Amino acid sequence: MPSTIETGHAKNVATFEDLISFCTGYGATYNPSKAILKLTALNPQLTGAQTALQTVKTAKTAYDNSTNARELAFVPLKPLATKIINALAATDATGQTVDDARTIVNKIQGRRAKAVVVPDAQALAAGAEPVKTASTSQQSYDKLVDHFAQLIALLTAEPKYIPNENELKVATLNTQIADMKTKNTAVVNGLTAVSNARINRDKLLYGELTGMVDVAMDVKQYVKSVFGATSPQYKQVSGLRFTRPSGD
Among 54, 73, 113, 196, whose CB has the most other CB atoms within 10 angstroms? Predict the structure, then answer.
């Protein structure tokens, strides 16, 4: 469902179309000297605003699709990491290599290598120092890619790691991380596209003096000056409301 803010932008554009329709209906009487208020300028401005709204929608859909694709691509990572560490532990690799791999896997899983012993209330009262712990989540997509890359590098350097299972082979893992990187980059680029589309939309709709809303206010003022404050024509346009959303 579209957000209230996004719906507000669309409502403003629809109302601007209503305003143009009323002005068109006034025929030759609607003849402002200011170029930006003429119908020959208002109609292209409406088209530009409509295009800007659609561009935001298209970019947002692409962004949402890319985030969904990335989420699906990363789902197998944690169970795969568990399989990898078990496969490595079953080889003749040194204990140090296995421990190093397990440390990386723990980061992928979002858990500590060792449990943190926290002093109880009695110990704290006796003067024990509170335990300062660093964040171990490191679960952002960028971090997960980095951890997985470290794990693959370790496996690549270990000659004893030669699994028969295709999903655990280094070549397969390299293909998988390449796909994860591609999907993660798509999200980053998608977010940029949405942000730029919104910037352009806001400039066209809410830019000072030349934006659609400011132009609409000037049009209403012109209609008032031509037909009078109590005229039915001014009542038509004065009732048209435009808002300025505070966010995206």
Answer: 73
Tokens of 194: 């949405």
Residue-wise pLDDT for 19-40, tens only, equals 999 999 999 999 999 999 999 9
Enter the tokens of residue 55: 């561009």
CB 73 within 8 A of CB 178: no
Count the neighbouring beta carbons within 10 Å of the beta carbon of residue 60: 18
Q: Which residues contact 149 (CB under 8 A, 6 or more apart)?
A: 177
Cβ neighbours for 177, distance < 8 A, ≥ 6 positions apart: 145, 148, 149, 152
Encoded tokens for 130: 């509170």
Does the pLDDT of residue 124 top 70, yes or no? no
Q: What is the pLDDT of residues 202-213, one digit of tens each?
A: 999 999 999 999
Cβ within 8 Å of residue 216, ≥6 positions away: 15, 16, 19, 240, 242
- The residues, any chain, with a CB within 8 Å of residue 50's CB and separated by 6 or more, are 13
Q: What is the pLDDT of residues 152-163, one digit of tens each?
A: 999 999 999 999
Rounded CA separation 35/73 (Å): 53
The pLDDT value recorded for residue 81 is 97
pLDDT mean across residues, the chain: 90
- Tell me the angle at which helices 39-74 and 4-25 cross, rounded to the nearest 10 degrees: 160
Beta carbons of 172 and 148 less than 8 angstroms apart: no
Chain-centre distance of CA 73, in angstroms?
Answer: 18
Closest CA to 102 of 121, 91, 88, 92: 88
What's the CA gap between 155 and 98, in Å, rounded? 10
